[in-house]
Amino acid sequence: MYGLAVSTGNTIQTENKFHEIQWTELDFVLDSIKTLFRNYDIKAVKIGIIPSLAYLKKIVTEIKKRSPKTKIVWDTVLKSSTEFEFTTIENQTELIEILQQIDLITPNYNEILKLSDSENSAEKIAQNLSTHCFVLLKGGHNPNQKGVDYLYFDEECAKLNSTLMAVSEKHGSGCVLSSSITANLGLGHDIILASLKAKTYIEKYLNSNATLLGYHYV
């Protein structure tokens, strides 16, 4: 499998501190998407950091216009692990319109609360949003069952248990997980199997060493 990339933002950061971001002009991103889709058969796309919902909507719309069957995963990175805030959700109607074009979102317990203006629990918000797309509620910040993920879809919920008693936290682990899911979708797996395979991969990554930077094993 080939991996392609379009940068939505260039960052200055380490695993310990976020310093600065320079967002990529939207027109440049859209032109990049057009070029790649004209030249490659792209099965799945992961979207990461974005400066606004309007920016995200343009990207999603362009992808679906070029290739309606391409799977889209949005890694809802609203804030970095080093506490830099990328995006604020201000328009629920616009959010829902975007989710209806996306196949999967991957929020953690902190992010899911920011995807809704309700006072509901993380689980209830995930259930509500899953009427629009699959929702993988990541368990890294789960206050009750750390490391246990829940995949919400079609009024159902699949529990993805952790096989590890303890893990070493990593900078960018959410990005690794969503990228792994996207790669597995590109291989033709459905969202449930892709999520299970990515769960296995991320656990190996988390326990690859004791630092905040992990090793990838292929």
From TrEMBL:
Molecular function terms from GO: hydroxymethylpyrimidine kinase activity; phosphomethylpyrimidine kinase activity
Pfam families assigned to the protein according to its UniProt record, in alphabetical order: Phos_pyr_kin (PF08543)
* Highest taxon, organism lineage: Bacteria
| A single GO BP | thiamine biosynthetic process
Q: What SUPFAM superfamilies does its record include?
A: Ribokinase-like (SSF53613)
One GO cellular-component annotation of the UniProt record comes to:
cytosol
All residue ranges annotated as the Pyridoxamine kinase/Phosphomethylpyrimidine kinase domain in the record:
1-211
Listed InterPro entries: PM/HMP-P_kinase-1, Ribokinase-like
Its protein name is ThiD protein
Q: What is the lineage of its organism?
A: Bacteria, Pseudomonadati, Bacteroidota, Flavobacteriia, Flavobacteriales
